[in-house]
């Protein structure tokens, strides 16, 4: 499967996506507001156009928004009047609800499929992009009740074929809550561990005695904090809620320690994640034809851990990999 | 420099210390309550005795307590009546105030020097011990106003020579507060990150989307939680205080996010730790003769980041490596 994709924004992720598609034999038209970036992309085999309007008119069947979240709203406002009816819209942002809000405001929501490839580096810009960066990654694809089936099959087909991606089909809110837990909150907590040491009267000693647990726990906070701050701010509501849960749990543990009580419940709670997890699970592959109401059903299977591994557009079906219930009682890991 | 050391408890740390000393040409007498452990230690060149009382009578000049913290009090109670006046007492526990309390209660505090080598593995027992585990490590050595100078010079001499250790001379409370910040709280926070995912309605998705930041941030929580629980419980007061600070900061950040306020202060606070730190610092080496009141003066220099790198027992002096103030404004990293 190949096709014609337009990429808006040729930074680390947009540039990597464009290069992957070129390498896989797809036709790629690209645009970036930065002229030197456009030059680099042209050298890498991207058909570069000088304006966003020119990109919209290039005839691509899928348009990938790869601009920073703060630029999404203005970009879709400019695209809406010039984008052909047949074009599908997707993106690569790390949060999905704010993107869909912007797309809906521009009247493009039916043909929008949210996408978030779970890959990246600490660098940025086309010069840091890499045709292998997104290959084989896990991708979240998000839908809502209005999502057009053809649009979803087009994007899921591109991800599973050109990117060899494993797709988690999800509702926007489920995606945003989950990435708050496994990405944004861990970044905040790592930052807070550094802040505690900086603010301590024994800061010099703490730095001197710091060993492996501290280095690992703070690694993601040691580079420039601007990217972390942007991710956290973009997903503020879910991050805020999870931080309040974290604070509540830490205060409860402090109370237990001060009262000389049992801390077993705190330390044993995650035993299900320590018990080997995926090693013991059995998965099955099923083909699912997407009928009316497919959006809710597919997102619900995704919430339970289903992964979409292939698309058959002609049959309007997808192939899902799902965990079978295991005979071990209490094993809830997918 | 060599000498005769008695090691009480031949597990991972006691066994490693004993093997290091043997390899460095020291005479080592050892005891452990477990008979098979005594057999392993004997094969490794340790002069093993069958009873704790026999160990006390063996004539060692330094006795290293390497028993679990819960066994420290009963062990020093048994040692106190049989230990020769000339023997110096030290230990390897990860918290120092509770050990000194037990040693003081047994009347042995003048000749006790607290010690905590900043090294370890996730294994335990003599079979996991290694003569290289503690070599070249950073060690905290703690003193209080009653500490005998000869005792301190003996322990610091052993650590800097046989173990090639770099010593942070500290007050007990400073040590315990610092390790709460760089070891115990990071372990708790890693555990909480796992707990959040386990307790979430989107747990399966979160596990599926987890990437590098989550793996790094939870690594130390993924093995058996019993060791973390013991460390945290042993240092409950400092850990509890630091957890309350953490919770306060996280709630403040959540409030700021909910109010759409500026999060710059939170994300920039640790910039001093990100700015290259030690790379830009200049250190000087000074010899310090330890006179009356040396305990407070040395611990205060240690609190400010001084490291003890050598001992001259005949001159009653130590060699310290200390950071020079740097010309860069705002660079506070030692």
UniProtKB/TrEMBL annotation, chains A, B:
Domain called Prephenate/arogenate dehydrogenase: residue spans: 3-288
BP-aspect Gene Ontology terms: tyrosine biosynthetic process
MF terms (GO), sorted A to Z: NAD+ binding; prephenate dehydrogenase (NAD+) activity; prephenate dehydrogenase (NADP+) activity
Keyword Oxidoreductase: yes
Recorded superkingdom: Bacteria
Protein name: Prephenate dehydrogenase
Keywords: Oxidoreductase
InterPro entries in the record: 6-PGluconate_DH-like_C_sf, NAD(P)-bd_dom_sf, PDH_C, PDH_N, Preph/Arog_dehydrog, Prephen_DH
Gene3D superfamilies: 6-phosphogluconate dehydrogenase C-terminal like domain (1.10.3660.10), NAD(P)-binding Rossmann-like Domain (3.40.50.720)
Entry-linked Pfam families: PDH_C, PDH_N
Family as reported in the entry's similarity comment: Belongs to the prephenate/arogenate dehydrogenase family.
Organism: Sanguibacter keddieii (strain ATCC 51767 / DSM 10542 / NCFB 3025 / ST-74)
């Amino acid at each position: 499967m190949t096709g014609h994709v337009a990429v808006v924004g040729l930074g680390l992720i947009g540039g990597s996506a464009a290069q992957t598609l070129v390498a896989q034999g797809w036709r790629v038209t690209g645009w970036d507001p930065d002229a030197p970036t456009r030059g680099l992309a042209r050298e890498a085999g991207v058909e570069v156009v000088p304006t966003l309007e020119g990109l919209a008119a290039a005839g691509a069947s899928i348009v990938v928004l790869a601009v920073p979240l703060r630029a999404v709203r203005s970009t879709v406002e400019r695209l809406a009047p010039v984008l052909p009816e047949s074009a599908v819209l997707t993106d690569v942002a790390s949060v999905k609800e704010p993107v869909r809000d912007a797309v809906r405001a521009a009247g493009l929501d039916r043909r929008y499929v949210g996408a978030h490839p779970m890959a990246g580096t600490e660098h940025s810009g086309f010069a840091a992009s890499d045709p292998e960066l997104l290959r084989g990654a896990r991708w979240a694809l998000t839908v809502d009740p209005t999502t057009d089936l053809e649009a979803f099959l087009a994007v899921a087909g591109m991800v599973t074929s050109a990117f060899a991606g494993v797709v988690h089909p999800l509702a926007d809110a489920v995606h945003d809550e989950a990435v708050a837990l496994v990405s944004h909150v861990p970044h905040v907590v790592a930052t807070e561990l550094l802040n505690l040491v900086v603010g301590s009267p024994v800061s010099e000693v703490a730095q001197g005695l710091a060993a492996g647990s501290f280095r690992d726990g703070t690694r993601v906070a040691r580079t420039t904090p601007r990217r972390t701050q942007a991710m956290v701010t973009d997903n503020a509501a879910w991050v805020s809620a999870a931080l309040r849960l974290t604070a509540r749990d830490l205060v409860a543990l402090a109370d237990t320690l001060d009262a000389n009580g049992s801390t077993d419940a705190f330390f044993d709670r995650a035993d299900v994640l320590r018990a080997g997890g995926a090693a013991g699970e059995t998965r099955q592959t099923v083909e699912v034809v997407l009928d009316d109401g497919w959006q809710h059903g597919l997102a619900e299977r995704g919430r339970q851990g289903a992964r979409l591994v292939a698309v058959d557009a002609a049959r309007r079906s997808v192939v899902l990999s799902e965990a079978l219930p295991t005979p071990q009682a209490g094993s809830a890991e997918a």
